Amino acid sequence: MRSIIAIAALCAALSSNPAVAQEPTKSEAVRIEVDQKAKAFIFIIDDEPVAMLDKSGLRVVNSIEYGFTLTDTGPAYIKDKIEQRGKEVAND
């Protein structure tokens, strides 16, 4: 019985078509790349970088629009909120 299975597997392996290289896939229109060297997240739309987030802040190429409020709370408040969110995610 084992020899029949082995022969069938060998026949299947020999009769298969050779692997053909696949066409490279196009990059996604919207993506976030991690740049370990720059220690930053790069936001890319249509193959153009539009924003960067790193340790010192967020930079955008074009405008920022908002419809409610923009509040300067200071870095300590934001660090606390990030730590709290990290703890919430860890508990999930």
Characterization of this structure:
It contains 2 helices and 4 strands, in the order αββββα. The protein has helices at residues 2-15, 75-91, and strands at residues 30-35, 40-45, 48-54, 57-60. A 4-stranded antiparallel sheet has the order 1-2-3-4, with no helix packed on it. Strand 3 (48-54) and strand 4 form a beta hairpin. The longest helix is centred in the C-terminal third of the chain and has 17 residues, at 75-91. It is extended, with a radius of gyration of 26 Å.
Q: Shape, please? A: extended
Largest sheet: 4 strands, antiparallel
How big a fraction of the residues is strand? 25-35%
Which value, in Å, is the CA radius of gyration?
26 Å
Summed up, the helix count is 2
What is the count of β-strands?
Answer: 4
Label the structural class.
alpha+beta
Order of strands in the sheet with the most strands? 1-2-3-4
Order of helices and strands: HEEEEH
Helix content: 25-40%
Mean pLDDT: 80
Low-confidence stretches: 19-24
